[in-house]
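Subject: for your reference before the review

Hello V.,

The reviewers asked for a structural picture of the protein, and I figured it would be easier to keep everything in one thread rather than splitting it across files. Below is the amino acid sequence we used in the manuscript, unchanged from the supplementary table.
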Amino acid sequence: MFILQSVTRLGRKRLCGKAQQILSAASRSASAPQMAVLLPPDPVFSLRSADMGAVHSVTFDSCQRLCAGTASGRIFLWDLQTNRCRMNFSAAPRPIIALHRDARGALVSQEKGAGVKVWRPTNCGYEVSGQIETDSGNFCRIDCSDERDLMLVPKGANHLQVHSLRDLQLVMTLQPEAEESLGALMSCRIIDPDAAHALAAFESGHFVTWDLREGKVLSSVKLEESPMALDYDSLTNRGICAGPGDSMRVFAFQRPQMAIVQRSEIALKNPGISVVRIRPDRKVFVSGGWDGRVRVFSWKSLRPLAVLTEHKKGVLDVAFSPGSVDLWRAPLMAVAGEDSQISLWNLYN
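And here is what came back from the structure prediction:
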């Protein structure tokens, strides 16, 4: 009995000592300075219209207006000083998957599977001043360079055409060397306006680089299958691509051969990326996912910074304003989604 009581007293002392250690540690932790936790920002505004529907593409018209292309084929023009829709018009019977405002004030729209149109403003709206038939049934978007006055246009299943932005005249046709093994064209970029190179990504995962001065293939490298999203920064010689998988790949070019080399890989919690965009100041880049998430990363370190959860369906496009928007006194990011809204963000400026 005496032995049992002694053991019990000893156990209680040990428990009390342990409890005192825990309380002391908790007290020290409470008195120590806490590291600040950065919460993701909220959108400054969300643009909605009862008849807008899913938004497939967005582009800024200077810093005071925003153009949006919808699944119904209509284009909506939003005034960013009042956050109201100024007008909308029917541009095509199919989704508008890409928009671009050129340096002369014309609006370029791409209709899925059919063609590209150039719209000029008039006193009562917009009228078509030219168009290009593409016969391309995939989701590859056009890419435009105002510096070189050129536009890359998908043609057929796996060709690219280079057109003048000024008058839409055909400059050249770009063809891969092994068409039968590449599959459909997924995405394209004018990657280096000064050196005149173009990059196209194919369903097979091959990335083909052309010299736009001679129209010849410089390199073909397999990197990422079905790369639906693609962007490139010529200043740092780094690009990023993603698709239906659960990762994004960072690549660079070996000059002068212009062969692609993979630099790193960023794992994703949920698979499926529709769009990637590098902000013009090169501080951050973002990805828009099938899960409705917009993930923000540092472009320098590739470190994740925030996950934006405003959209409840897939994100289809992202655009950055070329400068400060007067109403918000800051540059904005516009995010287009399948949930019929465009969210506006003042993102780490």
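For the response letter, the relevant points are probably these. The longest strand covers residues 125-133. Residues 1-16, 18-37 have pLDDT under 50 and may be disordered.

Happy to draft the paragraph if you're swamped.

O.
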